[in-house]
Amino acid sequence: MTTSGICGSDLHMYEGRTELKQGTVVGHEILGVIEEIGQAVRSVKKR
């Protein structure tokens, strides 16, 4: 994983429109680099 950001549903909590309970993890939109794949992997490719 190289980057993480908040998504639209997280924005509701961040902006106070819905409750953000203590311990809630935000930032589940991720970007990364695939460095290795197993033999059975068919849907992604190594870069």
What does this structure look like?
This protein is an alpha+beta fold. The protein has one domain (1-47). It has one helix at residues 8-14, and strands at 3-5, 29-31. A two-stranded antiparallel sheet has the order 1-2. It is elongated. The two termini are 14 Å apart. The model has no long low-confidence stretch (mean pLDDT 87).
SSE topology:
Layout: E1 3-5, H1 8-14, E2 29-31
Antiparallel strand pairs: 1-2
Number of helices: 1
What percent strand? 5-15%
User: How many structural domains are formed by the residues?
Assistant: 1
Instruction: Give the end-to-end Cα distance, rounded to a whole number of Å.
Output: 14 Å
Number of strands: 2
Largest sheet: 2 strands, antiparallel
Helix share, percent: 10-25%
Order of helices and strands: EHE
Biggest sheet strand line-up: 1-2
Category from helices, strands and their pairing: alpha+beta
Mean pLDDT: 87
Instruction: Label the overall shape.
Output: elongated
Please mark out the parts with pLDDT under 50 across 5 or more consecutive residues, or reply none: none
**Cα-based radius of gyration, to the nearest Å:** 16 Å
Write a brief structural summary.
The protein is of the alpha+beta class and 47 residues long.
Name some characteristics of this structure.
1 helix; single chain; 47 residues; alpha+beta
